[in-house]
Structure formats: C-alpha cells, structure tokens
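Hello Y.,

Per our agreement to keep a running log of every chain we model this quarter, I'm adding this entry. I've kept the format consistent with earlier entries: sequence first, then predicted structure.
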Amino acid sequence: MSFDSAQFKRLERAGYNRIGPRYLAAAGARSELAAALLAAARLKPGQHVLDLASGPGLLARGARDAVGDSGLAVASDISEGQLACCPDLVRVAADGEALPFASRSFDRALCGLGLMFFPDDQAALREIRRVLRPDGLLALSVWGSACEVPLAEAALACMRRLLPPPKVARPSIFRFGDATELASRLASVDYRDIDIRPFRLTVGFSDAAAYWQGFLDLAGGAAESLSRLPVEKQQALAVAVADELAPHAVADGFELTSTVLVATARPV
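Predicted structure for the entry above:
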C-alpha cells in the first residue's frame, strides 16, 4: 500500500475537526503528562513559546501561564476545529512541516504526542530547529513501543482483528517508541544535548464503552475513518475491545499504564 502524505493530512485534519471540543474533555486524563512536558521545557517569564500539534491548547495554555504577560505562547495546529476550542490563546493554523514563522522567533518549542503524526518528521524537526533561537530548547513527547502503550494499542489491535486492512496507509504512532531511534532522528537533523526519559501514564475507565469513546475522542484520522463504517460495525468494535482490555481489568473497570518518552534537545 503506497503512502499519500497529502491524503493522510486531509484525513487527520478532518478527524480532528470532527472531534472538536470532545478532544479537550478527553485529554484531561493526560494532565500529568502535560505537566511533565512543561517541566522538561524549563519555561521562564518573558520567553516566546511555540506549541506544535497544539490541539485545543492544553500545553500552550500552561506555557502562557509560565511565561507571563511579558512572554508569548502560540498554539499551532493543522486543525482549525481544534484551535477554535482555545479562543483565549494566540492561535495559528499551520502545517508543522512548513511553519509560517520567521527564523529564530522562539525560545521554546513544544510538541506533545504529535511528532509521530507528521508524515515527514525530519521536515518538521528541521522547521522547529529553524524557528528556535540558538539557545532555544525543543521539548516533545511520543508514545513508547506498542507493547508498552495499551492505552492506544488495545483499540488498534481490536481494529486489526475485526476490520480489513485500511485503504489509506498511516505512519505508526509507535515509530519513535525506541529511545535510541528517537535520539538518532533528532541528531540527524542537527539537534544536540538530547535527553530522553520514560514517563508512565496511567488512565482508568469504568468499562469498555468508556475506553472506546475515549479513544474515538482523541484519535483524529483514525476516528474519521471509523465514523464512515456502518453503525453496526462501529457498535461491534465498542463491544469487542473488551477482549483486548481484559488483561487490564481492575475492581471498578480497567486501568491502563502506558510508557511515553519525554525528550528535550537543542539546535546545533
């Protein structure tokens, strides 16, 4: 199956536009991860911060609070529907592989669980490096390997079990799950002082239906593709995912602990 970058981006944009404010509500379960990424960025008053793949602006809002009135925090995303959820922020709808900002404009760049959704991650990393000042810092997070991320893999495994292969190829969301590979990708586009640390994220769900809805509310392009299935197939997936969740059962539902890699790096 060949990969069409433009088609993939259209699907992702449509999916995140469809999700709209539901993403903001569902993302609250990841607040501890957001706090860890903001801490890794070492923000200070007066800095200019760019948040890429910002979604509804959770990281950008935290950055704005950290840099204060003398600083600047910009939320940037390919989805106008997501940016509409954060009217209180400075917002720019943009493709992360071709940023509309002047070189050396920002002290910090953030990208929370977003790099794996850029078809050309190297182009995105070069653009981030370009807009960072020489003493700037990139702070990003990516999912770990599939076996360490049941929060996403349970749904994806259920889809592989019940559905035919997708017609539109998608980059794996786990493609940077190995710290050595992530460090290599950063170094190959001239980043230095690379530091990568694992973060354990635990999220609970009352039942399989709650898990499935949570997945749909965060899944972007995958959710867009699923929305085009017959209703009975969508309902079957919501029930069948209980099989993948079974190893994570607890007394009051399901509890899934996943690994996220939090990385920082500076431009050469």
